Amino acid sequence: MTTKVAVVGATGRLGQLVSRIVRExxxxxxxxxxxxxxxxxxxxxxxxxxxxxxxxxxxxxxxxDFSVTNGISVLVGTSGWSSERIASLQSRIADNLAIGxxxxxxxxxxxxxxxxxxxxxxRFFDSIEIVETHHASKVDSPSGTAxxxxxxxxxxxxxxxxxxxxxxxxxxxxxxxxxxPIHSLRMxxxxxxxxxxxxxxxxxxxxxxxxxxxxxxxAGILLALRATRTARxxxxxxxxxIDLSSGLPR
Length: 250
Hints:
The chain is of the alpha/beta class. It contains seven helices and eleven strands. The strands form two sheets. Strands 2-1-3-4-5-11 form a six-stranded parallel beta sheet, with helices on both faces. A five-stranded mixed beta sheet has the order 7-8-6-9-10. Strand 7 (175-177) and strand 8 form a beta hairpin. The radius of gyration is 19 Å and the shape is globular. It starts with a strand and ends in a 14-residue tail after the last strand.
């Protein structure tokens, strides 16, 4: 039995990719393709089992609220979901055992690995900054991936405390998330790239990931769609859906 999927934001870059993946899969049935301005009642009219939100930061909350209110699990691929918004959502659906919300800041497996490595390294360096670059049409900054990376690094070093980030009162020093400065570039000729820079005594470490084509998201999208079918509560990050244990002997 296939799972019926409604894609909201289907006219955007990511929305077109999600729609194609759903359409070509034997596991899912694409029952609605909506743009970001469409009436969300079409999700109900199509009798969708799950909704996929790939809209805009200013629209995403409405899509999630509508889906949750109507008992429909939702996969969120839209940026802008801060830890505060996620905590509020968790409180709202804590007692609802029938639905789930899966929030994925980045569908790339390589990006998830880079973020995991950055969280590991954050415990060993006090000087840390993020530089993220996306295509010129990306409307939000910093990116959801950069925010997620900073939050995970902050959590990993909670006992060590804030990073050393001098002169953050100057606008050119970026936006701080979990005390870590993030610098956002929006340029033509780029899909997505993130670098996390670590500075230590006499050494530097840089963790870099670059998306060369949207096809890098395909495996993660399928994984997230499958997880949303049975999700309960709020799940954040592709890292929660894959086994990130090293598999190496200790």
